[in-house]
């Protein structure tokens, strides 16, 4: 039985004030309009930015949940506001899953999940462990490091980290494109930093954490691993983990991990070492300083909706599907780099790949041999429908005019790209570089003719290029890209992409307390018991039925349908599955179960449905019989009924003809006889009284007061299930 819950619109379109901002033609634009345009852009763009990804609908649902309404300064069990019982549950669950995801023991590691993003997480860690002007060493930005590791130029401190602390960068060996560990050790021995950072933002090779740990111990420094880019790969165990060597690990949560935009700080706890002289245990002292640095040191209230969404993402990251996704991320990156970097005579395009290849999710292209810079190519790629980002490479002098282009595979792997698809992407990038070379030459000539300063600069190029509307090659390539990438689903559109969507976010976290349970229930969810409710056998039967000739097509009114066999049912036929999350009273039924296999029927009904019985009146009598109720019970039960969004599969008038049909032609189980039907042909959900009567009739122990809780949950779960089933089947529309 399906039922309906009224759900408010996700977005409320507000009328813009007369004095509001004007966009484009001067017409006011609403946020809903902007969101729809961004959704369309994401659909029709090839996203190669390695720090971006597409998160699941379950994560988006949690981000847009009521969890964002609550202030909760402090930590679980020690808040500065009241009413945080369930906020505490969500944050504690998130912490537990963070440790589980990376295979850590809570006796050896702790984690703070409150940082709003990655750069602040690094600042909070530095502030917790260092005094002002203490020393840090991190990979130089032009060599693949990150701004938050303390980047500065000879004349300016770019990152505020370099203002608060003294920073010295280590670099790559330019001849190999790999981290120069020998030089790092030499510098660290002289500089004596208190923290050495093992982390990158544009380095395509694996980090030797053991070597860096050895160097850190030699100079008495903490080893901080910033795994923001690679945390998803680490979680899936497809690349080495930093946790065996690092003292502190920071990470963002929205890149390869595919969670919401947030961050985590992991820190060691427990016994650090045994004092060789006193034989006493020396304990790690990281937890209290780091937690205090986050709150109250730098932040106020945490973003509870983000923490809840992160808990969902961390559960997804523990699934076999997530591991398969990360393996494909690596395969795609290698295929992409090989096509770009191999010599032209050996099936490649002859580009210079920094370090000569990749071991992770990204590819760093050095464009200096092509005579163009990353900023210009980035703009042309954007105009043809490819999102990438300019990036510094070894030898660059300006971060505003970098010679490299950074590209990654996580986002498009989420949408279903395979190695052959990334070979095609490499060809698109190559065409964009060629277009850039032609436009750059023309823009230089035009700028020189106009006696413009710096005719080869990025501003002159961008001014000449405009929106690319005058470049035929750009328009043609943009059309090709849109027509191709638009055929790949976004994660919330399809399970065909690498997308793991659990009903935890939409059902368990929203309805657990309503049902009288606790969020501990979410701890027990696993990929095995949160799989898509449509079993493979059911779907196989359904797809086979699509090959048969339809006897009717649902056109809005159920009374117009004349279906002679359930095996030829329309695609609007609902699939009635029993949710293993909300009930274990009945086994899950296949789509075309006959009337003779309803779950656990009472003895009287079972006799009526016996194969030897053909007494339809007896069947109807058994269906309509109810348990006698007291006047008090009846008076407390509502009789209002709601109309669902789910269509029925069959006319009511045909239900009485079951005895004349062969067993293979009988109606599906969800065409049971007790429910009503709307004028639009949709199910009508039972009232509280009807629901109570049915449960008593079928042998369940329940009270009238329970209906106030059970009926709304029942309705909401069925509406959500129907919505997700329709989304789940979209990729197979062509098979129908």
Provide mean pLDDT, rounded: 79
| CATH architecture label of the largest domain | 3-Layer(aba) Sandwich
Instruction: Describe the global form.
Output: globular
Quantity of strands, as a count: 22
Major beta sheet summary: 7 strands, mixed
Termini separation:
25 Å
- In helices, the fraction of residues equals 25-40%
Strand content: 5-15%
Stretches where pLDDT is under 50 for at least 5 consecutive residues are: 1-28, 495-535, 546-616, 618-634, 651-656
Q: Kindly report the spatial arrangement of strands forming the biggest sheet.
A: 4-12-11-10-9-5-6
SSE class: alpha/beta
Determine the number of helices (DSSP H or I, runs of at least 4 residues).
24
In CATH terms, what is the fold-level topology of the largest domain?
Answer: Aspartate Aminotransferase, domain 2
CATH class of the largest domain: Alpha Beta
**CATH homology superfamily of the largest domain:** Type I PLP-dependent aspartate aminotransferase-like (Major domain)
